[in-house]
Amino acid sequence: MKKLFQIFSVLLIATACSNSDNNENAQLEIRLTDAPGDYEEVNIDIQSVEINASETDSDSGWKTIDIHGGVYNLLKLTNGLDTVLSHVELPAGHISQIRLILGENNSVKKNGILTPLKTPSAQQSGLKVKVNADLTPGITYTILLDFDAARSIVEKGNGGFNLKPVIRGVSEATSGAIKGVIVPAASKPAIFAVNMSGDTVATTYSDTTSGKFLLRGIDPGMYTVKVSPKPNYQPTEKTAVSVSLGVVTDVGVVNVP
Fold first, then answer.
1. Would you call 164 helix, strand, or coil by DSSP?
2. What pTM did the predictor assign?
Protein backbone atom coordinates (compact mmCIF):
# COMPACT_ATOMS: atom_id res chain seq x y z
CA MET A 1 0.00 0.00 0.00
CA LYS A 2 2.83 2.39 0.82
CA LYS A 3 4.40 1.79 -2.58
CA LEU A 4 1.06 2.39 -4.29
CA PHE A 5 0.66 5.79 -2.64
CA GLN A 6 4.25 6.72 -3.50
CA ILE A 7 3.52 5.97 -7.17
CA PHE A 8 0.42 8.17 -7.00
CA SER A 9 2.53 10.88 -5.38
CA VAL A 10 4.99 10.88 -8.27
CA LEU A 11 2.14 11.14 -10.80
CA LEU A 12 0.44 13.94 -8.90
CA ILE A 13 3.55 16.02 -8.37
CA ALA A 14 4.07 16.24 -12.12
CA THR A 15 0.74 17.99 -12.61
CA ALA A 16 -0.39 19.48 -9.32
CA CYS A 17 0.44 22.92 -7.98
CA SER A 18 0.90 23.67 -4.32
CA ASN A 19 -2.37 23.50 -2.43
CA SER A 20 -1.77 27.05 -1.22
CA ASP A 21 -2.58 28.31 -4.72
CA ASN A 22 -6.24 27.28 -4.61
CA ASN A 23 -7.25 26.85 -0.96
CA GLU A 24 -9.33 30.03 -1.14
CA ASN A 25 -11.30 29.03 -4.24
CA ALA A 26 -14.75 27.53 -4.71
CA GLN A 27 -16.28 25.73 -7.69
CA LEU A 28 -19.34 27.29 -9.31
CA GLU A 29 -21.65 25.66 -11.84
CA ILE A 30 -24.35 27.73 -13.54
CA ARG A 31 -27.30 25.81 -14.96
CA LEU A 32 -30.24 26.97 -17.06
CA THR A 33 -33.77 25.58 -16.77
CA ASP A 34 -37.29 26.72 -17.70
CA ALA A 35 -40.87 26.83 -16.50
CA PRO A 36 -43.10 25.64 -19.41
CA GLY A 37 -44.88 28.11 -21.69
CA ASP A 38 -47.62 27.79 -24.32
CA TYR A 39 -45.22 27.86 -27.26
CA GLU A 40 -43.51 25.34 -29.50
CA GLU A 41 -40.05 26.93 -29.11
CA VAL A 42 -38.53 29.76 -27.10
CA ASN A 43 -34.99 30.31 -28.38
CA ILE A 44 -32.62 32.49 -26.36
CA ASP A 45 -29.21 33.54 -27.71
CA ILE A 46 -26.85 33.63 -24.69
CA GLN A 47 -23.55 35.27 -25.65
CA SER A 48 -21.86 35.76 -22.29
CA VAL A 49 -22.37 35.61 -18.52
CA GLU A 50 -21.03 38.00 -15.90
CA ILE A 51 -21.04 37.77 -12.12
CA ASN A 52 -20.96 40.61 -9.61
CA ALA A 53 -18.93 39.85 -6.51
CA SER A 54 -19.62 43.23 -4.88
CA GLU A 55 -22.54 44.50 -2.82
CA THR A 56 -23.20 47.31 -5.30
CA ASP A 57 -24.14 47.48 -8.98
CA SER A 58 -20.94 49.26 -9.98
CA ASP A 59 -19.22 48.32 -13.24
CA SER A 60 -16.04 47.45 -11.33
CA GLY A 61 -17.82 44.57 -9.60
CA TRP A 62 -18.69 42.67 -12.78
CA LYS A 63 -16.51 39.85 -14.09
CA THR A 64 -17.03 37.82 -17.28
CA ILE A 65 -16.76 34.04 -16.86
CA ASP A 66 -16.33 31.26 -19.42
CA ILE A 67 -19.59 29.74 -20.67
CA HIS A 68 -21.02 27.41 -23.29
CA GLY A 69 -22.61 30.16 -25.34
CA GLY A 70 -25.19 29.71 -28.08
CA VAL A 71 -28.91 29.53 -28.81
CA TYR A 72 -30.93 27.53 -26.26
CA ASN A 73 -34.51 26.35 -26.78
CA LEU A 74 -35.85 26.85 -23.28
CA LEU A 75 -38.76 24.49 -23.83
CA LYS A 76 -36.30 21.57 -23.96
CA LEU A 77 -35.27 22.44 -20.40
CA THR A 78 -38.54 21.87 -18.53
CA ASN A 79 -39.82 19.46 -15.87
CA GLY A 80 -36.51 18.92 -14.12
CA LEU A 81 -34.25 19.11 -17.17
CA ASP A 82 -31.45 21.67 -17.33
CA THR A 83 -28.18 22.39 -19.09
CA VAL A 84 -24.78 23.59 -17.87
CA LEU A 85 -23.91 27.11 -18.96
CA SER A 86 -20.65 27.31 -17.05
CA HIS A 87 -18.40 25.50 -14.59
CA VAL A 88 -15.65 27.73 -13.18
CA GLU A 89 -13.33 28.08 -10.22
CA LEU A 90 -13.71 31.39 -8.37
CA PRO A 91 -12.28 33.05 -5.27
CA ALA A 92 -14.56 32.33 -2.33
CA GLY A 93 -16.82 35.15 -1.22
CA HIS A 94 -20.15 36.75 -2.00
CA ILE A 95 -21.90 36.86 -5.39
CA SER A 96 -24.73 39.37 -5.48
CA GLN A 97 -25.91 39.13 -9.10
CA ILE A 98 -25.51 37.34 -12.41
CA ARG A 99 -25.95 39.10 -15.74
CA LEU A 100 -26.80 37.35 -19.02
CA ILE A 101 -25.75 39.13 -22.21
CA LEU A 102 -27.98 38.12 -25.13
CA GLY A 103 -27.30 38.16 -28.85
CA GLU A 104 -29.75 38.93 -31.64
CA ASN A 105 -30.87 35.37 -32.53
CA ASN A 106 -33.81 35.21 -30.10
CA SER A 107 -37.09 33.82 -31.40
CA VAL A 108 -40.38 32.17 -30.48
CA LYS A 109 -42.39 29.60 -32.43
CA LYS A 110 -46.18 29.50 -32.12
CA ASN A 111 -48.63 27.73 -34.45
CA GLY A 112 -45.67 26.67 -36.58
CA ILE A 113 -44.50 30.26 -37.18
CA LEU A 114 -41.05 31.32 -35.99
CA THR A 115 -41.01 35.01 -35.00
CA PRO A 116 -38.06 37.12 -33.77
CA LEU A 117 -38.10 38.20 -30.14
CA LYS A 118 -37.29 41.85 -29.48
CA THR A 119 -34.86 42.25 -26.57
CA PRO A 120 -33.44 45.80 -26.71
CA SER A 121 -32.66 46.22 -23.00
CA ALA A 122 -31.11 42.76 -22.72
CA GLN A 123 -28.78 43.36 -25.65
CA GLN A 124 -27.56 46.68 -24.25
CA SER A 125 -27.10 46.06 -20.54
CA GLY A 126 -27.84 42.38 -19.96
CA LEU A 127 -30.40 40.50 -17.88
CA LYS A 128 -29.60 40.90 -14.20
CA VAL A 129 -30.56 38.14 -11.77
CA LYS A 130 -30.15 38.52 -7.99
CA VAL A 131 -28.61 35.45 -6.38
CA ASN A 132 -26.93 36.56 -3.11
CA ALA A 133 -24.80 33.42 -2.79
CA ASP A 134 -21.91 33.02 -0.32
CA LEU A 135 -19.17 30.73 -1.64
CA THR A 136 -17.06 28.80 0.90
CA PRO A 137 -13.53 27.64 -0.05
CA GLY A 138 -13.49 24.03 -1.21
CA ILE A 139 -17.25 23.72 -1.76
CA THR A 140 -18.94 23.23 -5.14
CA TYR A 141 -22.08 25.29 -5.75
CA THR A 142 -24.80 25.31 -8.38
CA ILE A 143 -26.75 28.41 -9.35
CA LEU A 144 -29.90 27.44 -11.22
CA LEU A 145 -31.29 30.15 -13.51
CA ASP A 146 -35.00 29.39 -13.76
CA PHE A 147 -36.27 31.17 -16.90
CA ASP A 148 -40.08 31.54 -16.84
CA ALA A 149 -40.97 31.45 -20.55
CA ALA A 150 -44.72 31.86 -20.02
CA ARG A 151 -44.27 35.15 -18.14
CA SER A 152 -41.32 36.35 -20.21
CA ILE A 153 -42.96 36.41 -23.66
CA VAL A 154 -45.26 39.37 -24.32
CA GLU A 155 -47.44 39.24 -27.44
CA LYS A 156 -47.86 42.54 -29.27
CA GLY A 157 -51.00 43.60 -31.12
CA ASN A 158 -49.31 43.38 -34.52
CA GLY A 159 -48.48 39.70 -34.07
CA GLY A 160 -44.94 40.27 -32.86
CA PHE A 161 -43.37 39.30 -29.53
CA ASN A 162 -41.25 41.07 -26.93
CA LEU A 163 -38.95 39.38 -24.46
CA LYS A 164 -39.28 40.77 -20.94
CA PRO A 165 -37.42 38.08 -19.03
CA VAL A 166 -38.57 36.75 -15.68
CA ILE A 167 -35.66 34.77 -14.24
CA ARG A 168 -35.23 33.37 -10.74
CA GLY A 169 -31.75 32.52 -9.42
CA VAL A 170 -31.50 29.63 -6.94
CA SER A 171 -28.14 28.75 -5.38
CA GLU A 172 -27.24 25.59 -3.48
CA ALA A 173 -24.17 23.72 -2.36
CA THR A 174 -23.65 20.41 -4.15
CA SER A 175 -20.59 19.05 -2.33
CA GLY A 176 -18.56 19.13 0.86
CA ALA A 177 -14.84 19.31 1.58
CA ILE A 178 -12.16 18.11 4.01
CA LYS A 179 -9.38 20.22 5.47
CA GLY A 180 -6.60 19.73 7.98
CA VAL A 181 -2.96 20.39 8.83
CA ILE A 182 -0.05 18.04 8.22
CA VAL A 183 2.71 17.94 10.88
CA PRO A 184 5.52 18.15 10.02
CA ALA A 185 4.95 20.24 6.88
CA ALA A 186 8.34 19.06 5.61
CA SER A 187 6.85 15.60 4.95
CA LYS A 188 5.09 17.14 1.90
CA PRO A 189 2.57 14.32 1.48
CA ALA A 190 0.04 13.51 -1.21
CA ILE A 191 -3.39 13.30 0.42
CA PHE A 192 -6.30 11.16 -0.77
CA ALA A 193 -10.00 11.01 0.11
CA VAL A 194 -11.08 7.38 -0.26
CA ASN A 195 -14.75 6.39 -0.07
CA MET A 196 -16.21 3.29 1.56
CA SER A 197 -15.91 1.36 -1.73
CA GLY A 198 -12.16 1.98 -1.81
CA ASP A 199 -12.30 4.53 -4.63
CA THR A 200 -10.14 7.65 -4.48
CA VAL A 201 -12.47 10.62 -5.10
CA ALA A 202 -10.16 13.58 -4.43
CA THR A 203 -6.42 14.22 -4.16
CA THR A 204 -4.20 17.14 -3.20
CA TYR A 205 -0.86 18.09 -1.63
CA SER A 206 -0.37 19.89 1.66
CA ASP A 207 1.12 23.37 1.65
CA THR A 208 4.89 23.05 1.90
CA THR A 209 5.15 25.81 4.52
CA SER A 210 2.04 25.63 6.69
CA GLY A 211 1.11 21.97 6.16
CA LYS A 212 -2.51 22.93 5.44
CA PHE A 213 -4.55 20.92 2.93
CA LEU A 214 -8.00 21.06 1.40
CA LEU A 215 -9.76 18.22 -0.43
CA ARG A 216 -12.53 19.79 -2.48
CA GLY A 217 -15.74 18.82 -4.26
CA ILE A 218 -16.53 15.70 -2.20
CA ASP A 219 -19.97 14.10 -2.10
CA PRO A 220 -21.60 13.64 1.32
CA GLY A 221 -20.61 10.36 2.99
CA MET A 222 -17.92 8.61 5.03
CA TYR A 223 -14.29 8.69 3.94
CA THR A 224 -10.78 7.69 4.89
CA VAL A 225 -8.14 10.39 4.47
CA LYS A 226 -4.90 8.67 3.45
CA VAL A 227 -1.58 10.51 3.71
CA SER A 228 1.40 9.44 1.61
CA PRO A 229 4.51 11.47 2.54
CA LYS A 230 7.87 11.70 0.82
CA PRO A 231 10.57 9.09 1.68
CA ASN A 232 11.84 8.91 5.27
CA TYR A 233 8.27 9.38 6.56
CA GLN A 234 5.56 6.78 7.08
CA PRO A 235 2.03 6.79 5.54
CA THR A 236 -0.84 7.43 7.89
CA GLU A 237 -4.59 7.88 7.68
CA LYS A 238 -7.71 9.19 9.37
CA THR A 239 -10.76 6.95 9.22
CA ALA A 240 -14.50 7.59 9.56
CA VAL A 241 -14.30 11.17 8.28
CA SER A 242 -17.86 12.37 7.71
CA VAL A 243 -18.57 14.85 4.91
CA SER A 244 -21.83 16.83 4.77
CA LEU A 245 -23.33 18.98 2.05
CA GLY A 246 -21.99 22.53 2.08
CA VAL A 247 -19.68 21.87 5.04
CA VAL A 248 -15.88 21.85 5.23
CA THR A 249 -15.01 19.01 7.64
CA ASP A 250 -11.90 19.83 9.68
CA VAL A 251 -9.87 16.75 10.64
CA GLY A 252 -7.44 18.90 12.61
CA VAL A 253 -3.77 18.04 12.91
CA VAL A 254 -2.55 14.91 11.13
CA ASN A 255 0.79 13.77 12.52
CA VAL A 256 3.04 12.03 10.01
CA PRO A 257 5.45 9.60 11.70
1. coil
2. 0.74
